[in-house]
Amino acid sequence: MFNQTQLYAIDNVIHTNLIESGLDHVIFMDMAGNTIAKHDNGKSHLDSTAFAALAAGNFAAVDAMAKLVGESEFSLLFHRGEKSSIHFSKVNDETLLITMFNKDISLGLVRLKVTETIKKINTILAND
Questions:
Q1: What is the full DSSP assignment across 32-68?
Q2: Domains and CATH numbers, the chain
Q3: Is-contact 92 123, C-beta < 8 A?
Q4: Residue 55 phi, psi (nearest 5)
């Protein structure tokens, strides 16, 4: 699915665009819940394997709900907590980008950085 050059470039984009912008944790995964790349700020103690599996199930459930209300998909999900928030974005038909961030980071900044990152990842994937 991905070659080593693509994986290295994706890792670099995630680290530079998201982790260096202050996000706590980022998981790039396939729709089945398999982690392709993961990064954190060094302070995270997240079980990313379990989280990716749950995130895949969550995204699949929301996708089914979208179809029930006449939408082809909901390509973005957001969960806000008291201390942490989670932003889910569909990168393409096969992959998701999950970002976790604390209350000190604005949702607007996250959405901007995620949009930029997704464009760069899709460019990397298009250049086999």
A1: TS-EEEEEE-S-----HHHHHHHHHHHHHHHHHHHHH
A2: 4-126 (3.30.450.30)
A3: no
A4: -65, -40
Quick one: DSSP state of residue 20? Answer: G
Confidence of residue 50 (pLDDT cuts 50, 70, 90): very high
Whole-number Å distance between alpha carbons of 66 and 22: 31
**pTM (predicted TM-score):** 0.91
- C-alpha–C-alpha distance, residues 97 and 87, integer Å: 8
pLDDT by residue (tens digit) across 70-86? 998 887 788 898 999 99
Phi and psi torsions of 27, nearest 5°: -125, 125
